[in-house]
């Protein structure tokens, strides 16, 4: 889970021509063909922050914000980088969630309606994560764009064999279901399989893997046998990620000094998905995730209540308690052929511990970040948790980052090989597929797998903020 960086208008304009030329030069050829290799239709599922969210407002709210006449882009709205503090506060207010302690639910602000951009199944919500044309030329704003382009070259077509199942990433999987998402996803899978005559491949990135695991664990085995060819996950934080804690410590400015970090801090803290993605309690019970140096306090995953009390945001702990039972994910109940992919970045740059040097625990940039092995967002211990489940095919990629992996030719070719020779709809599923030895990783391991409650890979590398 990584938040997108903003750039100045000058940087965007300067980058536009270079980006266009580079993208033209990096288009690669492929030996795969949708019809020739009988490839499965693909439904993509994105990670946190990686779909565009629209908003409509019927009330100015306590901040006296302008009322819209129709739907407007809330996420990602690059205008906040070039607007004043009041505009930023109005934007954050309308994207922020409210936590109801009695109902254990999160909701929009009163008078605010939200929806994911585009029609369900269309690729627009996550092809790019903004509607701003200039920003779309920057790699940070291109999400599934390269994947879509690569598979169109393989003969896939939008709205037929290549689709997207976008969701409101502010919520955790159970509340995502309350929006009707899983009903729409079921219908999309059935329609796609029927239209193409082939079972469907589900390809998920990051939190999208957790969403699909939750979905599949609720579905009857007969339905999965009929419609699902394979589940492929990439960079999924099966045991959470320490980077989620950082969003409770410091607000983002996305590289734009005009953005008020405290506004973003208050916004991000309200997301239910952030509490959901915290490092799992048993797996990181002995790992110091936050050290508050001036106060001499250390917080592991077993100390979330104290951390949130000291941070002055007890709702974060309450939300976590609501969701804690969802971990560890029972991958042994998926009931489909499962391929788990992960990346180990070329540098040791994945956060595992935050050493706060300020007298304030939150709303501060005065801290050191202690890093460990991983994909720069999720530690290997969490990424490789999938290896312990029987019948999982595991593929490790070296030298790629969390999002960089799903933009790489190496990943495109691997996915192509997995989804080739798709079964027709309704064909008898082959138990376990062609998995080979359960839990055995392909490719060079990048670090210890770890078990829940086990020891963490040795942290290495420190970066200083402030």
From TrEMBL:
Biased composition (Low complexity): 423-443, 454-466
A GO molecular-function descriptor: O-acyltransferase activity
Biased composition (Gly residues): 444-453
Region (Disordered) residue spans: 423-466
Organism: Bemisia tabaci (Sweetpotato whitefly)
The keyword Signal is annotated on this UniProt entry: yes
Protein name: Lecithin:cholesterol acyltransferase
Lineage: Eukaryota, Metazoa, Ecdysozoa, Arthropoda, Hexapoda
GO BP term, example: lipid metabolic process
SUPFAM superfamilies linked: alpha/beta-Hydrolases
Annotated signal peptide: 1-18
PANTHER family linked: LECITHIN-CHOLESTEROL ACYLTRANSFERASE-RELATED
Pfam family, one: LCAT
Keywords: Signal
């Amino acid at each position: 889970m990584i938040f997108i960086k903003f750039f100045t208008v000058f940087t965007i304009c300067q980058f536009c021509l270079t980006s266009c030329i580079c993208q033209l030069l990096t288009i690669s050829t492929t030996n795969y063909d949708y019809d020739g290799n009988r490839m499965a239709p693909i439904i993509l599922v994105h990670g946190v922050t990686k779909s565009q969210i629209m908003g409509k407002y019927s009330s100015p709210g306590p901040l006296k914000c302008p009322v819209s006449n129709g739907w407007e882009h809330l996420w990602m709205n690059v205008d906040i980088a070039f607007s004043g503090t009041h505009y930023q506060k109005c934007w954050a207010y309308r994207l922020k969630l409210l936590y109801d302690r009695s109902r254990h639910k999160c909701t929009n602000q009163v008078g605010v309606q939200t929806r994911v951009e585009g029609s369900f199944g269309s690729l627009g919500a996550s092809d790019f994560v903004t509607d701003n044309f200039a920003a779309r030329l920057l790699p940070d704003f291109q999400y599934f764009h390269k994947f879509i382009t690569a598979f169109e070259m393989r003969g896939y077509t939008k709205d037929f064999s290549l689709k997207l199942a976008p969701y409101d990433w502010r919520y955790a999987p159970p509340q995502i279901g309350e929006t009707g998402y899983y009903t729409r996803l079921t219908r999309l899978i059935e329609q796609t399989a029927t239209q193409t005559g082939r079972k469907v491949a589900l390809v998920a990135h990051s939190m999208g893997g957790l969403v699909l695991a939750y979905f599949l664990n609720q579905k009857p085995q007969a339905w999965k046998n009929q419609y699902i060819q394979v589940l492929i996950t990439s960079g999924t934080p099966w045991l959470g990620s320490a980077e989620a804690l950082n969003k409770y410590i410091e607000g983002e400015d996305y590289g734009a000094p005009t953005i008020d970090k405290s506004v973003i801090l208050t916004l991000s803290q309200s997301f239910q998905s952030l509490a959901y993605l915290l490092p799992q309690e048993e797996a990181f019970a002995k790992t110091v995730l936050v050290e508050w140096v001036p106060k001499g306090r250390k917080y592991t995953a077993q100390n979330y209540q104290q951390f949130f009390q000291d941070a002055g945001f007890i709702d974060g702990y309450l939300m976590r308690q609501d969701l804690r039972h969802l971990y560890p994910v029972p991958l042994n109940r998926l009931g489909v052929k499962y391929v788990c992919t992960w990346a180990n970045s070329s540098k040791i740059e994945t956060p595992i511990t935050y050493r706060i040097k300020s007298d304030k625990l939150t709303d501060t940039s005065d801290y050191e970040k202690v890093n460990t092995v991983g994909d720069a967002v999720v530690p290997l211990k969490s990424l490789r948790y999938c290896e312990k489940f029987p019948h999982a095919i595991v593929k490790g990629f070296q030298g790629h980052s969390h999002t960089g992996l799903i933009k790489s030719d190496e990943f495109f070719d691997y996915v192509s090989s997995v989804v080739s020779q798709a079964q027709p709809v309704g064909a008898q599923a082959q138990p376990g597929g062609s998995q080979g030895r359960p839990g055995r990783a392909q490719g060079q391991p990048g670090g210890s797998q770890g078990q829940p409650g086990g020891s963490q890979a040795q942290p290495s590398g420190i970066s200083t903020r402030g």
